[in-house]
């Protein structure tokens, strides 16, 4: 049986339908696309995800009517409930906060109060480094035991003053070297003495807690207590075993393990730290590795 021949398709009609299809797809794409320029995917540009950034809600701080019932977060105290520093090998970015009045320290945003942070530490204004920031809250390093203690402060009122420093102190125990950075530039580096094997200088990130003088000794005109403690001595010389940066009258202690945990530095290092024009500020982050 013979088949009925079909007419050949009209090439101009096919072309017209094809062009109309392209126009329809383009119109639909324009209707569905967001009202913003298409991302440039040429020249190796990364794909752009389109979406809405959601702001996390602010968790309210619990009211603490009686701060006197809380232990002080200081170099003299131990705060067992304090969260531990999760990234102790990184230098904080330089944001510092100072309580203008005594403020509660919380174990987490909206959590329980575990301590009170006073306005001064060892005669200096309290400045502590921020290590994490969330809406309405900052997590800071504390000067208390155990080493690596942190806590959360509420920023939902006017009780904190905030400032920034670009100063950083890095202490390399294996190389017996202290280096001061400012604006990512090396300001000075010195050979120093560190703790012996029996009384090592503790490792971790901490901060300059205070600047103080001690009339009982003459070899260091100024001492910089840090927010970290000896892991050997629970007390030392009647104090809480605070590790510090201090001077020494002889040079034979530098470049080797020679202390009970403190960092012994030469006179020109102390002079740089106490430069009256541009001193190292209280709260400056310190990384001991």
TrEMBL record:
<dbReference type="GO" id="GO:0008360">
    <property type="term" value="P:regulation of cell shape"/>
</dbReference>
<dbReference type="InterPro" id="IPR038063">
    <property type="entry name" value="Transpep_catalytic_dom"/>
</dbReference>
<keyword id="KW-0961">Cell wall biogenesis/degradation</keyword>
<dbReference type="InterPro" id="IPR006311">
    <property type="entry name" value="TAT_signal"/>
</dbReference>
<keyword id="KW-0133">Cell shape</keyword>
<comment type="pathway">
    <text>Cell wall biogenesis; peptidoglycan biosynthesis.</text>
</comment>
<dbReference type="GO" id="GO:0009252">
    <property type="term" value="P:peptidoglycan biosynthetic process"/>
</dbReference>
<dbReference type="Pfam" id="PF03734">
    <property type="entry name" value="YkuD"/>
</dbReference>
<dbReference type="GO" id="GO:0016740">
    <property type="term" value="F:transferase activity"/>
</dbReference>
<protein>
    <submittedName>
        <fullName>L,D-transpeptidase catalytic domain</fullName>
    </submittedName>
</protein>
<keyword id="KW-0808">Transferase</keyword>
<feature type="domain" description="L,D-TPase catalytic">
    <location>
        <begin position="167"/>
        <end position="289"/>
    </location>
</feature>
<dbReference type="InterPro" id="IPR005490">
    <property type="entry name" value="LD_TPept_cat_dom"/>
</dbReference>
<keyword id="KW-0573">Peptidoglycan synthesis</keyword>
<dbReference type="GO" id="GO:0071555">
    <property type="term" value="P:cell wall organization"/>
</dbReference>
């Amino acid at each position: 049986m013979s088949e009925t021949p079909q007419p050949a398709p009209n090439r101009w009609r096919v072309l017209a339908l094809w062009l109309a299809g392209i126009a329809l797809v383009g119109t639909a794409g324009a209707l569905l696309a967001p009202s913003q320029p298409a991302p440039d995917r040429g020249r190796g540009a990364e794909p752009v995800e389109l979406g809405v950034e959601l702001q996390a809600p602010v968790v309210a701080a619990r009211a603490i009517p009686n701060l006197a019932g809380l232990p002080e977060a200081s170099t003299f105290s131990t705060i067992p409930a304090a969260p531990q520093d999760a990234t102790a090998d990184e230098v904080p970015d330089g944001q510092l906060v100072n309580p203008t009045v005594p403020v509660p320290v919380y174990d987490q945003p909206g959590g329980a109060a575990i301590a009170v942070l006073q306005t001064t530490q060892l005669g200096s204004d309290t400045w502590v480094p921020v290590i994490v920031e969330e809406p309405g809250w900052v997590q800071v390093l504390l000067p208390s035991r155990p080493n690596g203690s942190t806590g959360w402060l509420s920023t939902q009122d006017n009780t904190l003053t905030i400032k920034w420093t670009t100063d950083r102190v890095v202490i390399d125990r294996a190389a017996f070297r202290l280096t001061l950075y400012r604006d990512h530039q090396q300001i000075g580096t010195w050979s120093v003495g560190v703790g012996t094997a029996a009384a090592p200088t503790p490792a971790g990130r901490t901060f300059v807690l205070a600047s103080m003088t001690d009339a009982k000794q003459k070899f260091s005109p100024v001492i910089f207590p840090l927010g970290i403690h000896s892991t050997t001595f629970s007390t030392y010389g009647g104090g809480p075993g605070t590790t510090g940066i201090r001077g020494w009258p002889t040079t034979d202690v530098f470049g080797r393990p020679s202390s009970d945990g403190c960092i012994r530095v030469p006179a020109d290092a102390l002079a740089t730290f106490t430069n009256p024009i541009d001193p190292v500020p209280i709260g400056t982050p310190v990384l001991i590795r």
